[in-house]
Amino acid sequence: MIKHVCLLGAVGLLGLSSLVSANGVTPIVGNNQNNEIFYIEFDSKPYRFERETPSTTGGRSIVTASENIACEFESKGANAREFHCAADAPAPLAGTRYRAERVKGRCEDEDDEFRYVCVEGCDTQADAPREMFQGYWDCE
Length: 140
Known about the structure:
Number of domains: 1
Radius of gyration: 14 Å
Keywords: Signal
Order of helices and strands: HEEEEEEEEE
Structural class: mainly beta
Number of helices: 1
Helix content: under 10%
Strand content: 35-45%
Signal peptide: 1-22
Distance between the termini: 21 Å
Number of strands: 9
Largest sheet: 9 strands, antiparallel
């Protein structure tokens, strides 16, 4: 389970604009099998994607950022969300689709609010995260 510490790091990488949005959508965060961390920000267009690759020598991680990515986010009511990326989106998200359901937990306990599972395209994009998480925007 990804805690708010990771999400705060994601918000820091994505910039302060994520903190002040009226929409209240936190970044979607996940890891792949190579321990790379992915941050996707659907707060407002242009959408932003970051991929953090840990250093193999103990140095700094490498962060690759893309603006105006070819991905779309959709809220499907209070308990379901989805996002998908077109073929020209940054690898390894190109051609993938993720569906999310609200997870049982509480904001006050720093639980995640949504769990996204890859339902399409991850068989051809081996480095895509199989699941991703999204925290609560506000505990009120």
